[in-house]
């Protein structure tokens, strides 16, 4: 139980690069308010190198690193090691509240470990749903489990809030905050170094990157577990065919998962205009997004980030928990069929009106002030301030 008159002891748990990116603005905002929050950042170590790389862009580093990562470990092993490590940390540091973000195993493990200690949990990016517990797998069930264990639900959109209400979540525990991805990408856009500055980009084979000039860039990420192997191979074949046009280059930030690289390298490794790079730091990636013509991804976060930079997104998945982008016309769910991907990308590349229809629209995901709303909601929960206005009702 927190002591009256002292800052709220906030423990922020992250396991992967996307979590680090979306939680970094929250941590920075909390640390800018030391009279209200004492913020501790805990990394599970699930994706240790990528998480630290992402945090370093924001000049952050974990206060505690559980370092659970082992090569080719199972989902059950990741979950068990995360819960055990967080159990020890919670026992030692006794936070007032724990924040988790999104839909990874760190989210489910963090919420469960905090529940065991009867510590309230705030879920950043709460309420996203596809309706299929196996797509995306295991993310859909991770966020549903977190939704049942969390005390505060920071919903990024009205649709997310509606999903939570449909599941019986107490209305007063839901705060409509927007998505902290907009905070992060706007910060990165202001602070980003160009891709040829700072730490150099490198290929997945370890060599320096020569980014193509005079061509339109298609920036790609694809690594979802449910897309491996067959769907990812179809995506790569589509990218190879797009490269054959001669007027575009594919810049593919390839996830370090060996199962991903075993598929991507054989299909695209010998294509001159397909540049296979190690995942860059977030500022560099924001720069690549800003320079792109089209973004093709199966990532959730990039569906939010690219529209904030005015870039059309083709989502190579069968479902999406972010239908707001599709409804707003800034993203299109195209599935993983090779012909469909090629057709939809070609339409954007060749039809100016089709392209303009996806880029001249407002992002539905936030206004860059989401982290402060989340912190204000937390103070409200502890009786330390008024309930913040919903993002949709602010002027």
Overview in brief:
This protein has 395 residues and is of the alpha/beta class. Helix content is 43%, strand content 15%.
Helices and strands in order:
Blueprint: E1 8-14, H1 17-31, E2 37-43, H2 48-57, E3 64-65, H3 75-93, E4 97-101, H4 105-116, E5 121-124, H5 139-149, E6 152-155, H6 158-166, E7 174-176, H7 180-191, E8 216-221, H8 230-243, E9 248-253, H9 258-268, E10 274-277, H10 282-291, E11 294-297, H11 300-308, E12 313-315, H12 323-328, E13 331-333, H13 338-350, H14 352-359, H15 370-381
Parallel strand pairs: 1-2, 1-4, 2-3, 4-5, 5-6, 6-7, 8-9, 8-11, 9-10, 11-12, 12-13
Helix pairs in contact: 1-2, 1-7, 1-15, 3-4, 4-5, 7-10, 7-11, 8-9, 8-13, 13-14
The CATH topology of the largest domain corresponds to Rossmann fold
CATH superfamily of the largest domain: Glycogen Phosphorylase B
- Mass-distribution shape: globular
Rg, alpha carbons: 20 Å
Question: What's the CATH C level of the largest domain?
Answer: Alpha Beta
Structural class: alpha/beta
- Summarize model confidence as the mean pLDDT: 92
What number of domains? 2
CATH architecture call of the largest domain: 3-Layer(aba) Sandwich
Most strands sheet: 7 strands, parallel
Number of strands: 13
Span between termini = 36 Å
Strand content: 5-15%
> H/E order of the elements?
EHEHEHEHEHEHEHEHEHEHEHEHEHHH
Q: Helix content range of the residues, please?
A: 40-55%
Major sheet: arrangement of strands: 3-2-1-4-5-6-7
Tally of DSSP helical segments: 15
The low-confidence runs, each spanning 5 or more residues with pLDDT under 50, are 194-198
